[in-house]
Amino acid sequence: MPQTKFVLRHAMQRGLKIVVVINKIDRRNSRIAEVSRLIQDLFLELATSTDQLDYHVLYTSAKEGIAVTEPGMPGKDISSLFDCILANVPPPRIESGSFQMLVSNLDYDSHKGRIAIGRIWRGKVSPHDTVVRVNADGNMDYHEVAEVFTYLGLKRLKVDQAEVGDIVAVTGIKKVSIGDTIASPAQPSALPRIEIGEPTVEMTFGVNTSPFAGREGRFCTTRQLRERLYKELETNLSLRVQDTDSPDTFLVKGRGEMHLAILIETMR
Q1: Domain boundary assignment for the chain
Q2: 126, CA 20 to 30 Å: which among 36, 158, 192, 265?
């Protein structure tokens, strides 16, 4: 459980309240008791205080849409999970003041340009507001917000105003990067930046030189491949692309096999 261990370690370091959810209990070969024991061992390994050994466990089936507090209990919905979160996880601290958000992700639109995505930490934002972007060097530049979107599931909803706690997508901020702070000029203070880890895996990308080249796909030339890879850098900041001695081959570096596999699939 390397991913579980990674997430749990960081949650404990931040002093967060832990709610464990064991999913897929509907499967015939589910190992609820074994997984519970492994989780307990993981807590014993990572905990630095006895308080961190006090955690709540729920058993769920995302497929059936149920959550229960004990294995074998009948369930009708996931209200038990929501009740547990409300009862044990403290609400986020809301700071009063002017607008402030941390850019945690980016998207790109050929008409709108870069789209800054993140959580509003303070205040409110509306289209046509004047804001300040604070970059990694602490330099500031002014922009006018073009559009503001919130999320309903995976869908973006255009809104006239978003407020503290909302996860939003904002357009009109040129050259914005992950880790930048977007804030009101009245309080242009920067939030702690997100540190992006360096790549750990690299592979070469090249055009198809086999006799079947050009028979599948519309973008088959070196120029098109190069444009696509460097375009990816606008939103995929943990990716690195380098030209090589060969004009039709490029060195691409990512943070893992899955990172590069996703890139390959989106380029197909």
Answers
A1: 2-88, 100-183, 201-267
A2: 192
